[in-house]
Amino acid sequence: MKIIKALLVFTLITNLVSAQNDTSTPYSIFGLGVENKTASGGLTGLGNTGIAQNKPGEINLYNPASLGQIELKTFLYEFGINGMSSTIKTNYLSENTTDFNISHVIMAFPVNKNLGLSFGLLPYTKVGYDIDLEQYIEGSETSYTNRITGSGGLTKFYVAGGFNITKALSLGVDLTYLFGSINQESNIYYESLVNITDENQYRGFKFKTGLQYNILKQDNLNVNLGGVLELPAHLKGNQLRSSNKTLTTGTYMIIESDEPYDLGDFELPLTYGFGVTSTFNNTLTTSFDFTKLNWNDTNQSINKESYTNQSIYAFGAEYSPITKKSYWSNVDYRFGLNYNTGFLTIADTQIDSYFVSAGLGLPLSDRAKLNIAYSYGTEGTVNNDLVAENYHKLTLNLSFIGSWFNKTKYN
């Protein structure tokens, strides 16, 4: 019954995750939108590292091999939210925005002492922009205004499993289904109002494998290595377009009504990553991850812009006091750095980003923890008439460890 209740809660939150997806950044106009960069557990406070992390009481979204470490007779579940305040600016103007999102809802449980499973739902990409373009009629000096508004994004549902081959070696697999719609509305103002609405729907599967290996285990030093490989994927796309015109006289005319178009496949690249996590004297843990996305091998193109290979470098450090004499000596203290070269080249400029983070792992009880992380970051540049975004982000992840597989004893 407890599992059924949990699934009902999961279904309810699933509807909330799919229904809301707030963001506001002009770079979400490209491709599938901006990636959801929030991690599970305390990994956001660690710069989004985690390829080699394998804590038994936390769900790791980065490497499914870690699921083999889940303790028997437990059920892990986690819910996350985040809020972000951004300043979007060019050389000429700036604008402040505030966004709020449900970042994820995930669950995991052991099948036996060597096998663990997990499933969950989270935003994969987010789209949100409102851009006014002053354009000229070809062969004329007469201009008109084109207001372009975008919304939506893709949602990720995954099922993953991790298995301990030996005490030192674990393997894992992750099957993900991506689905959702990206909506764009154009309103052209010139002598009349022309409205064009496109609903672009995408869906498809992607597959990831992972491994973790405990290369060194001593009393004062523990070192884990991790690796992940995500195969290229093709998302099917189709578009529903409707358009109409409103004349200055008030006359309303339908030009197209829900006309379907085939968008062709959107290609996701081959991705691989490596990580190393080291724990010193059971108090200080450091992590370093490197991830590569081979966008050059896909056939993606965006007008005059281009996709380019993407590299992500991430570092995290966590301090957990040995003495447990007070509440604050039971808290985990975290710090992280993340640099992303980006996958877009616009005006001969690669749109990169970075963020720094700090976080706390606050115990609420023996089986519940609140992970808080603050991040400050920037994306893009104002050079070459481009756009830069500076943001402050607060992430809250609430995780529980349930004892759901213990048999009830009767006297």
Automatic annotation (TrEMBL):
Superkingdom of the organism of origin: Bacteria
Signal peptide span: 1-19
Keywords (A to Z) from UniProt: Signal
Protein name: Aromatic hydrocarbon degradation membrane protein
Organism, as annotated: Neotamlana nanhaiensis
